[in-house]
């Protein structure tokens, strides 16, 4: 039986440890922390050259590098994917729990398995769909959770035909969606999976950074220092991001992990959360007033002004919001007395 363990390679007093400990408390895999300032030979053996580094070990030698957000929920999601098979067969007793096992869950509803190929060894249409879906699931196992059901009643409960492929978005923005009523091909299945994988507000990291560099759109960076702040801003800005998705992309980015990106955009790290917009067509940067609360209405106005050429690069002051400095000045000017 394969056993899993989660290893954190770090120098002492690393800020990631609380998030990883929280994740480990809900998982069965043990957490092992390794201080690379002392265990230099061990860290060299596994080619650890940046801190912190998270590796998932399968047995004693096989290990997988974790590259996702440094947040407990993201680490838990990563572990769930690794401990599940690439494709899980579902029935009436298991499907509801499976739908909520991760942020996005794919389930294919296919006809019952037939006796085999036709007399001329030609696979049936349902066999071909199953082969395509299985192949896509294997290739994307590290990113998503895939299930399969051969019970038409389960599809009918969700108002879906057979065959169809559904994406259940349990904790992310948007509604559940399905690929149905089309001639299934590998290209269509891959395109559906890729389309569903894009969050309205995604998380930028080293692996996907280049994918966000589209000169035709504004790129709005949301810098955060705590996972709870990231979750709150994704909720509050989600509708705006969807409304403007043809003109702008929104991404969250961990300011603790990527301080150099914040610095390159003139974002002050002592005033977080923060929002900065990069117009890649003109290579201009616009920074949302860091003394003001990040609100959807004001962010929307800022983006529209940029798109219409009404704004100059630099800090974009937010009108109508009281900053700590202005509040202090007003209190001081009144000498503590109410005007009324």
Looking at CATH, the homologous superfamily of the largest domain is Glutaredoxin
Q: Helix- and strand-based class?
A: alpha/beta
The figure for the number of domains is 3
In DSSP terms (H or I, runs of 4 or more residues), the helix count works out at 11
Report what the structure shows:
This protein has 3 domains: 2-68, Glutaredoxin (3-Layer(aba) Sandwich); 84-115 and 124-197, Glutaredoxin, CATH 3.40.30.10; 201-308, Glutaredoxin (3-Layer(aba) Sandwich), CATH 3.40.30. It has helices spanning 17-26, 40-45, 72-83, 95-99, 125-139, 152-157, 186-197, 227-243, 259-264, 296-307, 324-333, and strands at residues 4-10, 31-35, 53-58, 62-66, 88-89, 104-109, 145-149, 164-169, 177-180, 201-203, 218-224, 248-254, 274-279, 284-288, 314-316. Helices cover 33% and strands 23% of the residues. The strands form 3 sheets. A 6-stranded mixed β-sheet has the order 10-12-11-13-14-15, with helices on one face. β1 (4-10), α1 (17-26) and β2 (31-35) form a beta-alpha-beta unit.
How are the SSEs ordered, and which strands pair?
Layout: E1 4-10, H1 17-26, E2 31-35, H2 40-45, E3 53-58, E4 62-66, H3 72-83, E5 88-89, H4 95-99, E6 104-109, H5 125-139, E7 145-149, H6 152-157, E8 164-169, E9 177-180, H7 186-197, E10 201-203, E11 218-224, H8 227-243, E12 248-254, H9 259-264, E13 274-279, E14 284-288, H10 296-307, E15 314-316, H11 324-333
Parallel strand pairs: 1-2, 5-7, 6-7, 10-12, 11-12, 14-15
Antiparallel strand pairs: 1-3, 3-4, 6-8, 8-9, 11-13, 13-14
Helix pairs in contact: 1-3
GO molecular function: protein disulfide isomerase activity
Enzyme class: isomerase
Organism: Byssochlamys spectabilis (strain No. 5 / NBRC 109023)
